[in-house]
Amino acid sequence: KQWYQRRVRGGVDNIPLALAGLCLYVAGFAPGMGPLPWLINSELFPMWCRDTAISITTTTTWISNALVAMTFLSISQGMGTYQAFSLYLVACITAIIYFLFFLPETTGIPLEKVHQLFKDRIIFSPFSSYGRF
Questions:
Q1: What whole-number distance in Å separates Cα of residue 61 and Cα of residue 41?
Q2: Given CB 3.0 to 4.6 Å as the disulfide criterion, which of 14, 69, 103, 126 pairs with 99?
């Protein structure tokens, strides 16, 4: 039997459990991390390069999604499902730490001045606001 056809302890089917997990994932991802790349793209680039830069970042996002989709089954068969999720978890935590230090806060800054945040600064402090690095 496939994993979703087996019963777990207590005689509960895996199908409702998997559907509940999927619904929780979508409910948490859609208002949180889902739209984040698109929001960041719309704020970071100056008008003169916005169309090209957003095209490049959109392509990068979809290539990254495709790589995860193409590698997950191979990694989970080779290393195990737990290890595959752990590997992707480490990648996500690394990205979060990177963005905490290198992505400045843009609240209240006009689009024309956002590029100045990147001009002279190399490392930003976590949760920095405009003028306080």
A1: 11
A2: 103
